[in-house]
């Protein structure tokens, strides 16, 4: 399996869109969905493009949905960190929708770790606005295998 973050628009109405997130670190895969504003792709692309220009240091949190059982849908946070001028490290935390379990509510969660490069980030940023199209769209961030 090739490491990646893939985002696909699966549904929308007049107020929100639902995106499917698939994160693969080359060994494990975790998928979830989250609700986002209709312009999430363009807004995220703009912010991530500005972050991409800060090759020396800097952090960026790509987020969708909301954590906790009080909210519908799932949650994802992908923290982007320039580790070296041409090495972008990404740590992800995903949470599925909560469901009843025993006397409370729980959700499946995953933390994965990825690495990518500036050129691959640029391709991802260019594809993000397609997620705002009513017919759906997809954006994939290709990543590089981490040494195990």
Tell me what you see in this structure.
Strand 7 (99-101) and strand 8 (104-106) form a beta hairpin. The chain has two helices and ten strands; from the N terminus they run E-E-E-H-E-E-E-E-E-E-H-E. It has one domain (4-142): Secreted effector protein pipB2 fold, CATH 3.30.2450. The protein has 148 residues and is an alpha+beta fold. The model has no long low-confidence stretch (mean pLDDT 94). The protein is globular. The two termini are 14 Å apart. The protein has helices at residues 40-52, 118-127, and strands at 4-12, 16-24, 29-37, 59-65, 75-84, 87-95, 99-101, 104-106, 109-116, 138-142. Helix 1 runs antiparallel to helix 2.
Going across the biggest sheet, name each strand in turn: 3-2-1-10
Strand content: over 45%
The helix/strand series, from N terminus to C terminus, equals EEEHEEEEEEHE
The termini sit apart by 14 Å
CATH level 3 topology: Secreted effector protein pipB2 fold
Beta-strand segment tally: 10
Mean pLDDT: 94
Specify the CATH class. Answer: Alpha Beta
Largest sheet entry: 4 strands, antiparallel
Number of helices: 2
Shape: globular
Rounded Rg: 15 Å
Tell me the helix content: 10-25%
Q: Which structural class fits the helix and strand makeup?
A: alpha+beta
Q: From the coordinates shown, what is the CATH architecture?
A: 2-Layer Sandwich
Uncertain segments: none
Number of domains: 1
